[in-house]
């Protein structure tokens, strides 16, 4: 039904407007008595064989929703009814910011892809915290970044502010220095500033009564040399894992009309490179740390490939938009067959 009726209808409209409309519809439907139960019965696969224990947390299943979909933590409870084992909110910044000028979100239907240059649009971390206080039992990751106006030399303060504000309300943290849509942000992936940032958060975390896992989200555009630096940084700072990967600035092989739009590309064109990065990190580090695989997962085969390459968990974003919630269920059922 989703691919035959709902998706073609939604794809007639501006992608950012339809995103907000979809949020309103999901919220409305879940408020109807018994509808939440119906969604869970349709899309959730509940089986202890799907559970994963990772960095001290128990995930109901290994299929999560990537950051960027529920930026402001507005719909995590409802989205969990669609079968996800965990939801990552954000990217959140200390202060609210509008993001980049519209139009800033583009479908590339011929490539099963999306280009976005959203620019960390969000209502600020304090607003998200108020919503997270209403969480029931959803495992939440908090993806944090810096405000656009904050210079890189002061970025660590923004990450610390978000970390402290979210600490009591998320289960793990993701440090986002890999979005291509905030000016100069990716410079923080260089070895020296990244080590300083992660070590500062690690030290801050160690002073907490119950420290939370800290992960680093990296770009797919890093060279092998830079990926080796990432492995060293994870080892030196002793953070808990890596999310591979964010969107790409590459435009290789695209066919769609919007292929030259500025921004980060996600979807099927990213499938191969994301898997390459996962495999490289896993093999070169000798599986020294957990990896969450994300990028171009549009089918069960894509998901299994990521896991076989060394990912411990996976996340969906663009594949969820193109394929619908049945993809989550299909992946979990396939993993049960493997168990």
Q: What's the number of extended β-strand segments? A: 13
Low-confidence stretches: none
Strand order across the largest sheet: 3-4-7-8-9-10-12-13
Number of DSSP helices?
12
CATH class: Alpha Beta
Please give the domain count: 1
Question: How does the helix and strand content classify structurally?
Answer: alpha/beta
Q: Can you name the CATH architecture?
A: Alpha-Beta Barrel
Helix-strand pattern, N to C? HHHEEEHEEEHEHEHEHEEHEHEHH
Helix percentage: 25-40%
What's the rounded overall pLDDT mean? Answer: 97
CATH topology: TIM Barrel
Tell me the Rg in angstroms.
19 Å
- Biggest sheet descriptor: 8 strands, parallel, barrel
Separation, N- and C-terminal Cα atoms:
29 Å
Fraction in beta strands? 15-25%
Q: Outline, from the CA principal axes?
A: globular
Can you identify the CATH superfamily?
Answer: Aldolase class I
Subunit structure: Monomer.
Subcellular location: Cell membrane; Membrane
InterPro entries: Aldolase_TIM, DHO_dehydrogenase, Dihydroorotate_DH_1_2, Dihydroorotate_DH_2, Dihydroorotate_DH_cat, Dihydroorotate_DH_CS
Cofactor: FMN
């Amino acid at each position: 039904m989703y691919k035959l009726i709902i998706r073609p209808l939604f794809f007639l409209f501006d992608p950012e407007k339809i995103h907000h409309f979809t949020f309103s519809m999901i919220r409305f439907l879940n408020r109807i008595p018994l509808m939440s139960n119906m969604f869970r019965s349709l899309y959730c696969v509940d089986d202890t064989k799907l559970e994963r224990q990772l960095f001290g947390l128990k995930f109901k299943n290994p299929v999560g929703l990537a950051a960027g979909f529920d930026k402001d933590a507005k719909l995590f409870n409802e989205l969990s009814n669609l079968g996800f084992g965990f939801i990552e909110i954000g990217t959140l910044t200390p202060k609210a910011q509008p993001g980049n000028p519209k139009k800033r979100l583009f479908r590339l239907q011929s490539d099963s892809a999306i280009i976005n240059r959203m620019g960390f649009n969000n209502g600020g971390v304090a607003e998200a915290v108020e919503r997270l206080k209403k969480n029931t039992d959803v495992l939440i990751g908090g993806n944090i970044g810096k405000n656009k106006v904050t210079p890189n030399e002061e970025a660590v303060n923004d990450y610390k502010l978000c970390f402290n504000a979210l600490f009591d309300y998320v289960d793990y943290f993701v440090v986002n220095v890999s979005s291509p849509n905030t000016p100069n942000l990716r410079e923080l992936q260089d070895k020296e500033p990244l080590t300083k940032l992660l070590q500062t958060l690690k030290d801050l975390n160690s002073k907490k009564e119950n420290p939370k896992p800290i992960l680093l989200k990296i770009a797919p555009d890093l060279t092998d040399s830079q990926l080796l630096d990432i492995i060293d940084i994870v080892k030196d700072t002793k953070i808990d894992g890596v999310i591979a990967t964010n969107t790409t600035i590459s435009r290789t092989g695209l066919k769609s009309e919007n292929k030259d739009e500025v921004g980060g590309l996600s979807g099927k064109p990213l499938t191969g490179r994301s898997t390459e990065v996962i495999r490289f990190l896993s093999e070169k580090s000798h599986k020294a740390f957990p990896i969450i695989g994300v990028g171009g997962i549009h089918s069960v085969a894509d998901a299994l490939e990521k896991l076989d390459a060394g990912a411990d968990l996976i996340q969906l974003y663009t594949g969820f938009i193109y394929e619908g919630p049945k993809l989550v269920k299909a992946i979990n059922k396939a993993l049960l067959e493997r168990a």
